[in-house]
Amino acid sequence: MASTTKPKRIRDADATQKRILSAARKEFAKNGLGGARVDVIAERAKANKRMIYHYFDSKESLFQRVLEDAYLDIRTAEQKLELDHLAPPEALKALVTFTWNYYLKNPEFLTLVNSENLHKARHLKRSTVLKDVSRRFVGMVGDLLKRGEEAGDFRKGIDPVQLNITIAAISYYYLTNRFTGSILFERDFMDQGKLDERLEFNIETVMRMVCV
């Protein structure tokens, strides 16, 4: 009897934690760490506050876990691009396109990053799981640049960290400032045609920076 009960309890616990994390991601993305309410998270997760604190200790710890999962998700998706199977120019275009599309499809990621920056990255500083995945990503971009150099496609000496910052920034700024930008520049930033134009501009910008 115990052998069948224990796996079921484990499955139930895993399912509960997933519901809590999903609800917490939405609440933190909408209201930030300070404005997020644990009782709202509990209600959306069909759990109770005691259960949340049992699994995650505190609201701060829950926010850290949500943030870690958000970064792990994008880093894992980047690794699945398998850029080493593409010619360097095509691989770089694929990375720029992926970043743009990921931000478009996951607006909660952008707001979570904004929130953590308001807290001066104190939760990321405590994280033990993100440094390795970030190093792997930098290594992946570094390998791509090296292949491009050897093939005569890319300039020498490009810093993979600087390149990643630029790729992220040209997508991030456009999307996080889409409301004010639409007013100031008198164009609908989220019109599909404008989104397509922006992606083309992002790709051209990066390729002009990197290519020989």
Automatic annotation (TrEMBL):
Residue ranges the UniProt entry marks as DNA-binding: 37-56
A Pfam family matched in the record: TetR_C_29
Keyword field contains DNA-binding: yes
Naturally occurring in which organism (per UniProt): Hoeflea poritis
Residue ranges of every copy of the HTH tetR-type domain listed in the record: 14-74
Keywords of the record: DNA-binding
Name of this protein: TetR/AcrR family transcriptional regulator
Top-rank taxon: Bacteria
